[in-house]
Design brief:
Blueprint: E1 2-7, H1 11-14, E2 29-37, H2 38-41, H3 49-61, E3 66-75, H4 86-98, E4 103-106, H5 112-122, E5 125-128, H6 129-140, H7 144-159, H8 183-221, E6 226-231, H9 237-245, E7 262-267, E8 273-278, H10 295-303, E9 306-312, H11 318-331, E10 342-347, H12 354-366, E11 371-373, H13 382-395, E12 398-404, H14 409-418, E13 420-426, E14 432-438, H15 443-449
Parallel strand pairs: 2-3, 2-4, 4-5, 6-8, 6-9, 9-10, 10-11
Antiparallel strand pairs: 1-3, 7-8, 12-14, 13-14
Helix pairs in contact: 6-7, 7-8
Length: 466
């Protein structure tokens, strides 16, 4: 086991820190420890340790901690009691004392025992990757469903760690009445209260989901196709969303700046309209208990007609980040036959060197899947992205021409409510000739309402006379 890369953060990192209150009323002083097993670092597409440590610092900065440094640790094996070896625990303990650290963020998943032992050894609060992501979600969730999902995940996480809150109480001994200590009884009471709260949250979530299901059904009746943005956290999805939709969605250089799905209408190059959905960013090693917190996002992706996978090509490990996103989508059943037509959006071309950009252009030419090189910040490449999006949307829809009688106001209203009207022409008798584009699911209803909208039937082939 080796330790390396201890030192203060750069001015750029420190400038992002805001001010949650610590013991002295100022910002909480925190230390990030990236502890990665050697075997994990040898995996295919595994992210470089330095990149993983940078991401861990970004997660800590996302809840406004005052970071005083970071330590990268390479582990030959994970110790059951403290995760780290004895020597490294002592070394970090000296740093914690010297820097007056109040919180250590471990970029790994700690068991309750490991977390408790490290807190005892270092004399400060210790939080693991799951707890840190839960904290970020708790601060950023804005919708009722998002807040309930995060609280449910947080309670599930806390339930296994209740013993930590009651170490000052005597644990229960055998026997009855005064022979038993109060500690275990208090823990059991808290566990029961947590389970009751979880049941209430699940009931509230069922109500919210039913309401959202009605809203989504209403939206499906609207003729506009849906385009969903997905990608690794901080890949620039919200900036691209604002660029495409002219919206004012919160977009910052922070991990998980967006948590709740947002919908806006956009106009495609030839005048057609679509709904654009901005979603929460994915991240590697996503805690299992947080999968349900992505439910709203995933439903938007599952129902989308086209998916834009936004990737930050200015990151050294952008290919590994893309694999992480694909892995999460696969785990959630959004691959294979359920996979939507996808455009890979290679974002932040303004942040890379010209020779790297030229290499990416050559790589794009050899890529089988649709790829768009863009800068969401400057707008470069956005028009080509919209044109490619329109092409994919049109490929999954059919175009039909119909004529509606002047007196058929109901038919005209149906056409506008359930199809895209690409062209409208008034005829001398007052009738309206419309060129429509609509999804395959609507074709049957269109042909029932407007028989002339059905494609002409081919005459049967005559057999050859002997």
């Amino acid at each position: 086991m080796q330790g390396k890369v201890w030192g203060p953060l750069s001015e750029a990192d420190s400038s992002k820190s805001l001010t949650p209150e610590g013991k002295s009323g100022s910002r909480t002083r925190a230390l990030v420890v990236g502890a990665y097993a050697t075997r994990d670092l040898r995996e295919t597409h595994a992210r470089a340790p330095a990149a993983r440590l940078d991401e861990a610092k970004g997660l800590a900065l996302a809840i406004d901690l005052d970071l005083c440094g970071a330590i990268l640790v390479s582990l030959s094996e994970v110790r059951p009691a403290t995760y780290l070896g004895k020597g490294k625990v002592e070394e970090i303990g000296e740093t914690v004392k010297a820097e007056e650290v109040e919180l250590v963020s471990m970029d790994c998943a700690l068991s309750p025992v490991q977390q408790r032992n490290l807190e005892k050894a270092w004399g400060c609060k210790v939080i693991d990757r799951t707890g840190l992501i839960l904290e970020i979600f708790g601060r950023r969730a804005r919708t009722k469903e998002g807040a309930l999902q995060v609280e449910l995940a947080h309670l599930e996480y806390q339930k296994s760690r209740l013993v930590r809150s009651w170490t000052h109480l005597e644990r229960q001994r055998g026997g009855f009445g005064f022979l038993g200590g109060p500690g275990e009884t208090q823990i059991e009471t808290d566990r029961r209260l947590i389970e009751e709260r979880m049941r209430r949250i699940e009931q509230d979530l069922d109500k919210v989901m039913r309401t959202r299901g009605l809203h989504r059904k209403t939206r499906r009746d609207v003729p506009y196709p849906v385009v969903a943005l997905v990608g690794y956290t901080n890949a620039g999805k919200s900036t691209l969303f604002n660029r495409l939709a002219g919206a004012g969605v919160f977009a910052e250089n922070l991990l998980f700046a967006t948590l709740d799905p947002t919908l806006r209408q956009i106009r495609l190059p030839h005048g057609a309209k679509a709904l654009l959905s901005d979603t929460v960013g994915f991240i590697s090693d996503l805690p299992t208990m947080l999968i349900s917190a992505f439910r709203a996002t995933l439903e938007e992706v599952a129902l989308a007609d086209v998916v834009l996978h936004v990737r930050d090509i200015s990151q050294p490990d952008w290919e590994a980040q893309g694999k992480d996103v694909e892995k999460i989508l696969d785990e959630l059943g959004l691959s294979g036959e359920k996979r939507k037509p996808t455009i890979e959006v290679w974002n932040k071309i303004d942040a890379i060197a010209p020779e790297q950009l030229e290499a990416l252009r050559l790589e794009r030419a050899e890529n089988d899947a649709p790829v768009a090189l863009v800068s969401a910040m400057t707008g470069e490449g956005v028009e080509r992205l919209l044109a490619e999006t329109e092409r994919l949307l049109a490929a999954g829809r059919e175009t039909r021409e119909i004529t509606i009688a002047a007196a058929d106001g109901e038919g005209l209203a149906w056409a506008y409510a359930h199809a895209e009207v690409l062209r409208r022409e008034s005829l001398p008798d007052g009738a309206q000739r419309l060129l429509l584009r609509l999804p395959p699911a609507r074709i049957g209803e269109l042909e029932r309402r407007f028989p002339q909208g059905a494609p002409p039937k081919r005459a049967p082939r005559r057999g050859r006379v002997a």
